[in-house]
């Protein structure tokens, strides 16, 4: 597995945040064999947006958000 969801540090941070902030929620992680790169999903989403002629050039991003 690869991609962001395979990141051990991110997985631990997510588990900790869920336990602390959502104590009634049961936290589950996918097995590493199910954590793949997101490139195919991103390409598919781009294809659908292109077909709908949706203007996505003004999307705002925040790549450095913190968990919790």
Describe this structure in words.
With 68 residues, the protein is mainly alpha-helical. The chain has one domain. The protein is 41% helix and 0% strand. It has 2 helices and no strands. The longest helix is centred in the N-terminal third of the chain and has 14 residues. The protein is extended and about 40 Å long.
Strand content: under 5%
In whole angstroms, the N-to-C terminal distance is: 25 Å
Strand-pairing-aware structural class? mainly alpha
> How many DSSP helices?
2
Question: What is the overall shape?
Answer: extended
Main beta sheet: none
**How many domains?**
1
The residue fraction in helices comes out at 40-55%
Which residue ranges are poorly predicted, with pLDDT under 50 across at least 5 consecutive positions?
A: none
What is the averaged pLDDT score?
Answer: 83
Number of strands: 0
Q: C-alpha Rg, in Å?
A: 16 Å
- Helix-strand sequence: HH
